[in-house]
Design a protein that fits this description.
Elements (H helix, E strand, L loop, with lengths): L1 E8 L3 H12 L4 E5 L12 E2 L1 H6 L11 E3 L2 E6 L2 E6 L7 E3 L1 H12 L2 E4 L5 E4 L2 E4 L3 E8 L6 H7 L10 E10 L7 E5 L6 E7 L4 E9 H6 L4 H14 L11 E6 L8 E2 L2 E3 L15 H17 L18 H13 L2 H8 L2 H19 L1
Parallel strand pairs: 1-2, 1-11, 2-8, 5-13, 11-18
Antiparallel strand pairs: 3-7, 4-7, 5-6, 9-10, 10-11, 12-15, 12-16, 13-14, 14-15, 17-18
Length: 361
């Protein structure tokens, strides 16, 4: 039996950030990770200024690939807008393959390659798979985290209203455009697509949509992917690449979350904390991991204070008021902006393809 004050299930950003902060407080932890690091992890890899500050990163000395995104090119239902990040704040992209390995090493935690499955309460602590014992337990294993499944599922039911289904691929591409591109509401997709360049000639391409609307849609996610691939080729962003995207699902942050039960905690995607505007999970995972470590170290109640709800709303009084306004309306904004005309845009997309097919034949 391996024992530690804290067992952390999952060595991604949330788990590693928690272990790092615990080590600063002199608290021993063991991180259980299903795969040895570095390991492949599909992710757009968006790093916000909040992440840089929270991890006390010196971006000039970060030893892996890090690209400053000086320009964001966004389209909202076909209307194009360019946002220079140096006018407001700095945004970066990283490869999760590199970043997760760097952060786990930075944590200094003991790491055991083990795919956790079963969690038991034993006395005032926990035992994982009959092999790991601790007083505190942190679930940082993503959407399908066994800590969530064993201890939180009945208390924190997940709504399809907040579920996102995504397809993405990361690959090397010579001469990649160094600008980030985002497309919102294309072809009736209640969601958005992205092209995120990385340092060293890598690119992440993907799209995601709300499961609720995809279930009602006549256009599947793979058809949206083909339309994205065609658009990337027409813009000269990705030409001649044979895409092999992979899919996954995760959850955006709901209004109410149960993230602590006694000495058990949830962080990151295990708690469903992705931001409500860009479905970005790195920042919320890191901050929630730091907050969980603080709760363990001090005995204070675990709080989601400081965990970002939005990626594109920065700090300050005006952005905070805007965020509170949007929060009060919940997903009404999503349904008003995207969903009020998604079926019409989808019909236009299908009609256009029908005409193209007829012309080709």
């Amino acid at each position: 039996m391996i024992e530690a004050a804290v067992v952390i299930v999952g060595g991604g950003p949330g788990g590693s950030a928690c272990a790092w902060r615990l080590a600063q407080r002199g608290i021993d932890s063991v991180v259980l990770e299903a795969e040895p690091f570095p390991r492949t992890k599909l992710c757009a890899g968006w790093i916000t200024p909040d992440v840089v500050r929270a991890l006390e990163m010196d971006v000039e000395r970060y030893p892996r690939g890090l690209l400053r995104l000086d320009n964001l090119h966004m389209e909202y239902f076909g209307r194009r807008r360019s946002w220079r990040t140096d006018m407001r704040s700095e945004q970066y992209s990283i490869r999760r393959y590199e970043f997760d390995d760097w952060l786990l090493r930075k944590s200094g935690a003991r790491v055991v390659t083990h795919a956790a499955r079963a969690v038991e309460r034993v006395g005032d602590g926990f035992v994982v798979d009959g092999q790991f014992r601790s007083r505190f337990l942190v679930g940082a294993g993503g959407t399908h985290c066994p800590v969530f499944r064993s201890l939180f599922k009945g208390l924190n039911p997940r709504s399809r209203e907040y579920q996102v289904a995504a397809l993405e691929e990361e690959f090397e591409y010579a001469g990649a455009d160094q600008r980030c591109h985002l497309w919102f509401g294309e072809n009736g997709l209640v969601g958005y697509a992205w092209y995120v360049p990385k340092q060293g000639g890598w690119v992440n391409v993907g799209l995601g949509g709300f499961s609720r609307y995809l279930a009602e849609s006549r256009v599947g996610l793979h058809e949206h992917w083909q339309a994205l691939a065609d658009k990337l080729a027409s813009l000269g962003l990705v030409v001649g690449h044979r895409f092999k995207p992979k899919g996954h699902t995760y959850y955006l942050r709901e209004r109410e979350e149960v993230c602590q039960v006694g000495n058990a905690y949830l962080v990151g995607d295990a708690a469903g904390l992705a931001t409500l505007d860009l479905a970005e999970g790195i920042g919320p995972a890191i901050q929630s991991g730091l907050n969980a470590a603080l709760s363990i170290a001090t005995g204070r109640a675990y709080s989601l204070d400081g965990v970002p709800r939005y990626s594109l709303i920065g700090a300050g009084s005006l952005p905070s008021r805007l965020a509170r306004l949007i929060d009060r309306r919940g997903l009404v904004f999503r349904d008003w902006i995207y969903a009020r005309n998604w079926q019409a845009k989808e019909a236009d997309f299908l009609a256009t393809h029908a005409r193209e097919d007829a012309t080709a034949s």
